Amino acid sequence: MRVALFEDHAAPDFAPIALLRPVFELLCGQFSARERAVRSLPVDDWGVFVRDSLRAVYREEHPEAHVNELSWLRGGPTLLLNGRWLADPKTLPLCDPDAAGVIDGTVVFLTLDPLEVALLTGDNWDDALSQIARTRRRVSVPGTLARYPWDLIHHNADQLRADFAARDFGPSKAAELGPQVAVLGDVNNVFVDPSASIDPFVVIDARKGPVSIEAGAMIQAFTRLEGPCHVGRKSQLFRANVREGTSIGPVCRVGGEIEEAILHGYVNKYHDGFLGHSYVCPWVNLGALTTNSDLKNDYSVVKVPLSGVSIDSGEMKVGCFIGDHTKTAIGSLFNTGTSVGVMCLILPDGELLPKHVPSYSRIWHGDLIDGYPFEKGLATARAAMERRNIELTPAQEQLLRRVHFETRDERERAFDRFAEKSAVPA
Q1: Fold for the domain defined by 2-147
Q2: Are 301 and 269 contacting, i.e. CB atoms less than 8 angstroms apart?
Q3: Is the pTM of this model over 0.70?
Q4: 286 near 280, Cβ under 8 Å?
Q5: What end-to-end distance do the CA atoms of the chain give, in Å?
C-alpha cells in the first residue's frame, strides 16, 4: 500500500511549534499523525509533501520517505492523508479507495489515481483536491481536523484513549510491579514495557483513562501518573505529578506538575513548576519554577498571538506554546495563551512575561530585545544536542538560518509594539 501525508494551507497557523517540522509530525496522543498512519496501515511505500523549507531536513531524518516527489505519485494509486487529521487508528484502515473523506468541507483522505497527478500543481493542493473529490463519493469521517496548536491539546486525552485501545502492545509488566507500586483501576488499562524502571511509592491511576510507559523509561519514587497519559521511550520522571491528558515524548526529563500538556520529546523540565494546556518542542529547557497560567481570572476565552497575530482560541484553558531550542531561566512566569518562538532566551524580572516572544529574541530583565548572536545560539543548540549524543546536522543548521530570516519581520513588529507599550506612562 502506498500512502502520502501532506500539509495544506493551514500549516503556517501551527507556528511556533511547527516552524521546524511538518504538521503531521506534531505529537497528539501517543503518536504523530504520520506515525499513526504507518502503524495502522499495511504501508509498503510512503511519501510526504511538505513546505519547501522542511524538505532537506525531512529527507535526512526519513531517508526511506519520498519527499515532495510528484513523479512518485505516478507509480500507482496512493492514499493521500491530510496531516491535520487526528484520526482514530481503527478508522484509518476503513478509508474507502472510491470515496473522499471530508471533515467540515476539507478533504482528509483521498486515493489518488496516477492520471490525476497532473492536477496537483503549485505548493497549495487545496483547490486541486477539492476538484478531484467532486469525482468521488464524499463521506463524512470521524476524528478531528486540527486548525491551531491548541486543538492538539484539547483533543489529546481522547487521542490517548483511542491510540491505547487500538494498539497491539507486546509484553507488559504492569501486573508484576509489586505491592509498593499502587495501580488504581483496571490493570489492563496500564502498559509498562518490561525494560522500564518503576520505583516503589509510584501511583499509576488508570481510573479515568489508560497509562502507557515505553521502553527504557524511568519513574522515580513519589511520582503520580493519572490516565490518560503516555510516557515515551527513555523519558525520566522525577517526583512528578502528571495529570490526565498529558503526553511525554521520548528522552524527556520531567518534574513538577503537568496537566493536559504535550512534551514533544527531548524536553528538560526537571524542576518544580506548573505546565498546563501547553505544547513544548524539543531541546527546550525550562528552568526551576518555570510556570504558566492556563486560565484567566474572569474565565473568559483565551487569545493567542500566533506569529504576532492575536487569534481567539474559543477555549477557556490555554497555556503556552514553546518553539525548539528555547531556554527559560529560574522563576519564568508565562501568561495565559503565550507564544514563544524558536531559540529564545528568557531571563525574567519576577513579573508575567509578554504573551508574544518571537523567534530568536530575548526577554532580558523584563525587556523584549533581539536575541544573542545567531552563531552563539547555534553553538548552544549544538552543545545541548551533544549531551544526548545527537548531532546538529548541516541541514538542520540551514533550516534554523532560514527560519531566522523568515521571522525577521515578526521580530521587528514585536519589538516596536513592546517599545510603544513600555513608553506609555503607568
Answers
A1: Spore Coat Polysaccharide Biosynthesis Protein SpsA; Chain A (3.90.550)
A2: no
A3: yes
A4: yes
A5: 64
